[in-house]
Amino acid sequence: MFCTRGFIVFVSLFVQTSHGSEIIGGQEVKPHSLPFMALLENNNGPVCGGILIGPKWVLTAAHCVGIKKALLGVHAIKEKEKDSRQVRKVKSFPHPCYDATDKVNDLMLLKLDKPVKVTDTVKYQPLGKTIKEPAGGTNCLTAGWGKTNNRVNQMSNVLMSVNVTVVDRVKCNSPEYYNLKPVITGSMICAGSNGKNRADACQGDSGGPLLCDGTLVGVTSFGRGCGIMKKPGVYSFLSEKQLVWIRKTIGK
Which residues form the signal peptide (predicted)? Predict the structure, then answer.
């Protein structure tokens, strides 16, 4: 694959390497009401979220490195949930053009060692042939097991979700927001506070979904801090170009 470069921005002093770990301003979801959610583990335990998009494939963020297992049918991490859970070993396929500096193409596919069994608690979220980019002001939803406030350095035991509002890309690049550090490109979506409340994802929610009108439009990528009004979460947009890569990778 030919990888085009965007703007190169040195952001290590400004932006956390991963945004997605805590759901800020959200609430516990009804158990198994988001049956496509995957809890991803490395050798140290749960670290990221993901989206089951087919019987053998989970979509997540490329910066979620070292993933060994995908757990499906999870609501509460500390509960055994034997009747609902399915655990699979995975093989990682990060986007070949992912760039950790400018944050572009922060997507990864995980191939499960065997297909999941579709049940009431495990179902996949099919991708559309094309996905329309949500306009500024659109109300969307994100979810994950990340920590629920900045003072507690541990993930939530239960799956949480929060409504977030899409922020226009021009505004998101403005001096009051990200100030081009990094550049919010056409392959990214900003979504967070509606201007009245704190609503966000943070480290640990990485790889989770951005759902608008029930359609999967993005994957949790990064941000600056957690729950800061003018520093919304940034999501990798599932553009036509990204959908082509996903289909080609799954089809190999």
Answer: 1-20
- The residue from 206, 221, 236, 239 that is catalytic is 206
Predicted confidence band at 195 (pLDDT cuts at 50, 70, 90)? confident
Q: Which of 102, 106, 200, 205 is catalytic?
A: 106
| Residue ranges making up the domain that contains 210 | 138-239
> What pLDDT sits at residue 23?
60
Examine the domain organization and report whether 153 and 195 are in the same domain. yes
**Residue 168 is a catalytic residue:** no
pLDDT tens, position by position, 57-86: 999 999 999 999 999 999 999 998 888 999
Asked if 108 contacts 96 with a C-beta cutoff of 8 angstroms, the reply is no
Active site residue 206: yes
Q: Which of 70, 78, 94, 115 has its CA nearest to residue 3?
A: 94
Does residue 106 have an active-site annotation?
Answer: yes
Domain assignment present for 9: no
The catalytic position among 19, 21, 32, 63 is: 63
Rounded to an integer, what distance in angstroms lies between the CA atom of residue 228 and that of residue 170? 18
**58/111 Cα distance (integer angstroms):** 7
The answer to whether the beta carbons of residues 81 and 73 sit under 8 Å apart is yes
